[in-house]
Amino acid sequence: MKEKIMNWKKFLTTIGGMWLAYLAYKVTTLILLYTFDGLQSKPYYEFIYFIIVMAITLVILNWTKKFFKQKIIFSPNVVALKKQWSILIVPLFLYGIDTLAILPNTTEHSFYIVMASIASALGAAIFEEVRDRGFGGIGLASSIENSQWKPMFIAIVTSFVFATTHYFNLLMPNAPTFVATNQQVVFTFFLGMTSIVLYMRTGSIFYSILIHFLNNFSFWTSTSDLSQDDGWASMLIFYALIPGLYSIWCLRPKKAETNLKYLPDKQSD
């Protein structure tokens, strides 16, 4: 009997789980933000946010084991990265250089602000990488028959879900503009594409969490949650074209075996 190309039950479980986890986070935080006026502009909100996303992350880790009989690996796969260290160059340059540049200014900020900044950046990095690259990547890998296009399909679907969730930021009390949100959606799609490459090539979300954290980190201010409108030209070149070409190159069919090495090798029953 011919094997199914797609296990729709697993596919829908994956997409539904990704969205359910996000909506649980967003509904909870929106209730808090609209209940307590001005909470979004208080640094202690970042610690509340961290607790909320970590709680949901624990649920996602449990879902991964329950639905797919897999574990999301956090420990860095140094052996795998050593053989292909160059895959870190583009992500570090694109998403880490600005953070590395501002780190010397740490002493200009209070310890409390530094910790709030870390809580915000790290909470988002862990939650979103576990949800979209870990749960999403494993779930889709368990849903689809192996082929040379499987890695690209997983990357596009998980990145699309990851990016489009950011439209819900328009519901926040201090919401970014629609233009800024559109730019954030484009930006996060290609961030997702580069992140899934790191996850596939190493089997660990350690490196995607690191890149995501570096990208998110900035010292907290009362307007930190407000995305600024940037020029489309520079944004599309540096945060769409470059990571897009990087992702296509890494996920090309010729490298399918390498990209599938650490993912489930067949559909789950």
Automatic annotation (TrEMBL):
<dbReference type="Pfam" id="PF02517">
    <property type="entry name" value="Rce1-like"/>
</dbReference>
<feature type="transmembrane region" description="Helical">
    <location>
        <begin position="12"/>
        <end position="35"/>
    </location>
</feature>
<protein>
    <submittedName>
        <fullName>CPBP family intramembrane metalloprotease</fullName>
    </submittedName>
</protein>
<feature type="transmembrane region" description="Helical">
    <location>
        <begin position="149"/>
        <end position="168"/>
    </location>
</feature>
<comment type="similarity">
    <text>Belongs to the UPF0177 family.</text>
</comment>
<feature type="domain" description="CAAX prenyl protease 2/Lysostaphin resistance protein A-like">
    <location>
        <begin position="114"/>
        <end position="217"/>
    </location>
</feature>
<keyword id="KW-1133">Transmembrane helix</keyword>
<keyword id="KW-0482">Metalloprotease</keyword>
<feature type="transmembrane region" description="Helical">
    <location>
        <begin position="47"/>
        <end position="64"/>
    </location>
</feature>
<feature type="transmembrane region" description="Helical">
    <location>
        <begin position="180"/>
        <end position="199"/>
    </location>
</feature>
<keyword id="KW-0812">Transmembrane</keyword>
<keyword id="KW-0645">Protease</keyword>
<feature type="transmembrane region" description="Helical">
    <location>
        <begin position="232"/>
        <end position="251"/>
    </location>
</feature>
<dbReference type="GO" id="GO:0008237">
    <property type="term" value="F:metallopeptidase activity"/>
</dbReference>
<feature type="transmembrane region" description="Helical">
    <location>
        <begin position="85"/>
        <end position="103"/>
    </location>
</feature>
<dbReference type="InterPro" id="IPR003675">
    <property type="entry name" value="Rce1/LyrA-like_dom"/>
</dbReference>
<keyword id="KW-0378">Hydrolase</keyword>
<keyword id="KW-0472">Membrane</keyword>
